[in-house]
Amino acid sequence: MRSFLRLCWQYLRAFILIYLCLLIGNAISAIIPLSIPGSIIGMMVLFALLSSQILPSDWVKPGCRLFTRHMALLFIPISVGIMNYYPLLISQFGPLVVSCLVSSLVTMLIVGFSSHYVHGVRNAKADKEPS
Q: Against a cut of 0.70, is the pTM above it?
């Protein structure tokens, strides 16, 4: 029974901390004049707390594992809500596909060039030892 209560407390603590970061993010989003969603700012707050080790990662780990384990289930309401805009999506299908393809291509190019810059490009002939 004691281990069950400890497990319940760990989940409750994790959910409370994650929710507090969300509330802080929503408050900051309401204050600043930028149109950044509060959930994104809340994730940045949580990241800052975890990376600065103000908040121990063990305190939020149970809740985060539960959220990531059931992430597909959490996207169902959003997907159903998008279907309300089906006619608009069909009318704008071409620009949506082009923007997705262009942004994916730009992202792949930036990551590729950045990787070559950071890791350095090796010459295949220079790696071989002379016989």
A: no
